[in-house]
Design a protein that fits this description.
- The structure is a single chain.
- By secondary structure, the protein is mainly α.
- It has a domain at 13-123.
- Helices cover 66% and strands 0% of the residues.
- The chain has seven helices and no strands.
- It has helices at 13-21, 33-50, 59-75, 84-95, 107-118, 121-156, 166-190.
- Helix 2 (33-50) packs across helix 3.
- The model is unreliable at 1-6 (pLDDT under 50).
């Protein structure tokens, strides 16, 4: 993980939405625990200087505060899903008092900065963009699914079970795909391979 730094990569809600949707950018919870805590210790040290607060203490003090902050973040299902870049922005804006006053750079203030970021207009707009994109993708997947079913019925003579409605048919199809994926994983593991 990298040290706290400013970034223009999420200057707009659209850029932030692209970051959130990027599977190559790890969420905080996907980073190794040791790396998370080291990064938080660096963040705490940097924020002390940026806030012109009292000297942050020795490495032991920072490690304890970083461990506590990591614990608080990892216990929150939303906060743990933030990316490092989002957290950096939250911490910078928090020290800039965009989310209100704070009293020292502590684990509690870091979590407060993250919660403030989650309520920010840019983050809310980005999440709306993400939801719209996911809905479009789901609609496109459904369209492709029904097109393939229609093709199979007409060209291959495939008999579609009468489930009564599309949702039940989709669930049966999804369940079948999950079983195939599980079988594939079992075969790979049985043959000494990793994940397919």
């Amino acid at each position: 993980m990298q040290l706290l730094r400013t970034s223009n990569s999420i200057a707009t809600p659209e850029q932030l939405a692209a970051l959130i949707r990027n599977p190559e950018v790890p969420k905080f919870c996907q980073v190794a625990e040791r790396d998370r805590r080291e990064w938080l210790a660096h963040v705490i040290n940097t924020l002390h200087y940026l806030a012109h607060s009292a000297k942050p203490g020795d490495d032991t003090d920072k490690a304890i505060e970083a461990t506590f902050a990591d614990k608080l973040i990892m216990e929150d299902p939303v906060l743990r899903g933030l990316t490092q870049v989002e957290m950096q922005e939250a911490f910078m804006k928090g020290v800039g008092r965009e989310y209100g006053d704070f009293y020292g750079i502590t684990a509690s203030s870091l979590v407060s900065f993250l919660r403030g970021f989650l309520k920010s207009e840019k983050r809310l707009q980005a999440k709306a963009i993400v939801r719209e994109a996911e809905e479009r993708e789901r609609a496109e997947a459904d369209r492709r699914f029904w097109k393939e079913i229609s093709r199979a019925v007409h060209e291959d003579g495939f008999q579609v079970p009468d489930f009564g409605n599309k949702a039940e048919l989709r669930e049966a199809y999804d369940e079948h795909r999950r079983k195939i994926a599980a079988q594939r994983e079992a075969i790979y593991r049985a043959n000494g391979g990793g994940k397919a």
